[in-house]
Specification:
Blueprint: E1 3-5, H1 14-18, E2 21-25, H2 31-60, H3 65-84, H4 89-93, H5 96-113, E3 115-117, E4 120-126, E5 129-131, H6 133-151, H7 153-156, H8 162-185, H9 190-207, H10 211-230, H11 232-236, H12 241-251, H13 263-274, H14 300-332, H15 337-361, H16 380-396, E6 398-402
Antiparallel strand pairs: 1-2, 2-6, 3-4, 4-5
Helix pairs in contact: 2-3, 2-14, 3-16, 5-6, 5-8, 6-8, 6-9, 6-15, 8-9, 9-15, 13-14, 14-15, 15-16
């Protein structure tokens, strides 16, 4: 259905007709984006099988255990993606606040009745199904902030009132991010806190956040990093013990046992380095044979590097970059601010998580549990990610063209 919208209302003057905007439903989803998503899912599934069969056989006696489950998650997530892509994005918009409130509720529940994994308490067990509320929050926060900026566009962009504009563009939406981050931090879930915080900041930036405050934020981060490198003992004392240990192991690995503390990082680096230019060949990794712990999860990119080499690893990174480019293209043609911010928020989620995962595997940042989107084994995270892809494809059916 076509809707013609002209600025100013009433009769259109010749000048107004030049700026007329036509919003229409294309009738089909963005096919390049769909192809990119399918490629990421297919290559990711192949790598899950290749990375997991030795570990699965050793620990469970069934080399196909993880790929069988992963394919079930892929089919379920694919069906959900197809279903969500049929919606009108305005329908999704109505549930933005409810999704955020529900996610806050789940984060509170997990603090009381959650299941622990190491130092982190991040899972809710619902019978045979385990759910990580922080994964849901990544999605819900994007919807909430996009909804906020869509409803407060005039207040955010008020001219001549810097502090009033700052209140609406930084402080209020920042509270949504801060609340989510505080609850995830209480789970001892450092990586989830960082990712949710960066996703929120990226959507606020695109929505109209004042660049001056982002400059202040960058300065604070740089100063903090300088303090960590130069006054580590004094700085570490203000952080929880598990964060202190992670950072210190990264800065001073020689002080820790390779057999216990830095095993995962060292074996991952060996896998990355041993791949060479073209790799050992698909399925021929040596490090996945009980050297890299649970190689189908957070360190799956190390197996990609070992089996496919530098060329294959770069190919995967390029595929992520093409995904980001196509997402930005869809956002630029989105019919309104809400839909544009939702697409950019979802794309930033994938981009941030992929970058951080690869940085962890290559020891550029401290080792913390960050999955690689579309590649790492996992049920709730993959299904939620596929639902996000359904929303991107849903919005891609709508375009804005200046006439």
């Amino acid at each position: 259905m076509d809707n013609d919208i002209t600025e100013g209302g009433g009769e259109s003057t010749p000048k107004e007709k030049k700026t007329k905007i036509k919003i229409f439903e294309k009738g089909s989803i963005d096919r390049p984006m769909l192809i990119i998503i399918l490629l990421l899912v297919c290559i990711g599934s192949i790598m899950v099988f290749s990375a997991s069969y030795a570990y699965a056989y050793s620990s469970l006696g069934d080399s196909r255990h993880y790929i069988r489950l992963q394919l079930g998650f892929v089919l379920g997530g694919g069906a959900l993606m197809a279903f969500v892509s049929l919606f009108n994005y305005e329908f999704i918009k109505k549930f933005s606040i409810a999704a955020y409130i529900a996610s806050i509720g789940l984060l509170l529940v997990v603090l009381v009745a959650g299941s622990s994994e190491g130092a982190a308490k991040r899972w809710l067990l619902l019978g045979p199904v385990s759910v990580q509320p922080s994964e849901i929050m990544k999605f819900a926060l994007v919807l909430m902030i996009a909804y906020y900026f869509d409803k407060n566009y005039r207040r955010v962009n008020i001219q001549g009132h810097f502090w009033k504009s700052t209140w609406y563009s930084i402080v209020l939406p920042g509270m949504f991010v801060l609340l989510a981050c505080l609850l995830i931090m209480l789970e001892n879930h450092l990586s989830g806190t960082i990712i949710v915080g960066l996703i929120g900041l990226s959507v606020i930036w695109v929505g109209g956040g004042k660049w001056q405050w982002y400059l202040v934020f960058i300065i604070v981060v740089v100063v903090s990093l300088f303090a960590v490198f130069n006054f580590s003992e004094q700085v570490f004392s203000v952080f929880p013990e598990y964060i202190q240990k992670r950072v210190d192991m990264w800065l001073n690995p020689e002080n820790y046992s390779v057999q216990d503390d830095t095993w995962q990082t060292v074996q991952g680096m060996i896998a990355v380095g041993s791949g060479g230019l073209f790799g050992r060949g698909l399925g021929n990794s040596l490090q996945k044979h009980l050297f890299v712990s649970q190689p189908q999860n957070d360190f799956i990119f190390a197996i990609v590097c070992e089996e496919l080499g530098f060329v294959g690893a770069v190919g995967v990174i390029i595929l992520y970059l093409v995904f980001i480019w196509r997402g930005i293209h869809i956002a630029k043609r989105a019919p309104d601010l809400y839909s544009a911010l939702v697409v950019l928020g979802i794309v930033s989620h994938v981009a941030i998580q992929a970058f951080l995962n690869i940085a962890v595997v290559t020891a550029l940042i401290p080792n913390t549990g960050i999955s690689l989107p579309f590649f790492s084994y996992g049920g709730s995270s993959l299904i939620i990610l596929m639902a996000e892809m359904g929303i991107v494809l849903c919005i891609s059916k709508y375009s804005k063209i200046h006439k």
